[in-house]
Amino acid sequence: MTDTTQIGRDALAAGTPIVVAVDGPAGSGKSSVCRESARRLGFGYLDTGAAYRALTWFAIDSGCDLDDGDAVATLLPSFVDRYRISQSPDERWVRVGEVDVSEFIRDTAISGEVWRVSRVPAAREALTALFRNTMASTTSPGIIAEGRDITTVVAADAPARILMTADEAVRIARRAGEKVGETVAAVAESVSARDARDAKVTNFTDAADGVTVLDTTRLDFEQSVEAFLRIVASATSGPHQTTAPSLAAAPSAVRHDNTKESR
InterPro entries annotated for this entry (predicted)? Predict the structure, then answer.
């Protein structure tokens, strides 16, 4: 297995937190793999998508017209001042002021409206600054930040940048397994609609130069985590030996872009 202890020691020796930036579409395994990897590394974990969801909740709760960019922008100082999220991979709470919105922001009604907020330039600018401040001030030896535009905008200079992806059919199947009570057809429509909406705001399917692609289509969870940790080890402290079979079992799972392959 990848020597996660060595990565942690290297991070502490560096004196500043190591940032691992991760992008990818829904169902690629991004959140679960990042959370488990952070746990093993002793790193913090930052779900940037939660901030956009929480801002959407806050705007709706405040009676804001989500199609009015200026109105959304007016709410930003108050939201940023009140927003809090756990950086522990073992905790999942999100708060806006005194309100725990952890469950509210996962509601379908919120999920379907997030794109309206994320398309507001002022919102993206304010939240990008919030994310950067959070990463810089973490008390952990490193932090894994995942979402959209993390590898290209939020943390474009991170030593480890990863684009996680998977074939659409696999992503839909994974999401369907999480959505109890929803048909596969409904989940498929939801995933496709979300991809289409998000694509209007950001490119989350093509890796920028220097970003490593991790395709989890043929990897199970443990293989995905091990492949992820190998990328981090290689990017932050040179090659490390591992006994994991993941790359041997799926040699094309990890790709360092400059090579793009059609999907």
Answer: Cytidylate_kin (IPR003136), Cytidylate_kinase_dom (IPR011994), P-loop_NTPase (IPR027417)
Model confidence at 146, in pLDDT bands (50, 70, 90)?
very high
Kindly write down the DSSP assignment for every residue of 6-22, as one continuous string. HHHHHHHHHSS-EEEEE
Domains of the chain by residue range: 1-43+140-258, 49-139
Cα separation of the two ends of the chain: 30
Mean model confidence pLDDT for the chain: 84
* CA–CA separation, 187 and 176 (whole Å): 6
Q: Which residues are part of a known binding site for ATP?
A: 24-32
Are 138 and 87 in contact by the 8 Å Cβ rule? The answer is yes
**In angstroms, rounded to a whole number, what is the distance separating the alpha carbons of residues 49 and 256?**
25
Q: Among 13-17, 75-79, 247-251, whose mean pLDDT is lowest?
A: 247-251
Decide if domain 49-139 falls under CATH 3.40.50.300. yes
Annotated binding site: 24-32
> Which stretch of 36-40, 120-124, 239-243 has the lowest confidence by average pLDDT?
239-243
Give which of 224, 204, 222, 202 is closest to 26, Cα–Cα. Answer: 204
User: Counting Cβ atoms within 10 Å, is residue 217 exposed (0-12), middle (13-18) or buried (19+)?
Assistant: middle
pTM value? 0.82
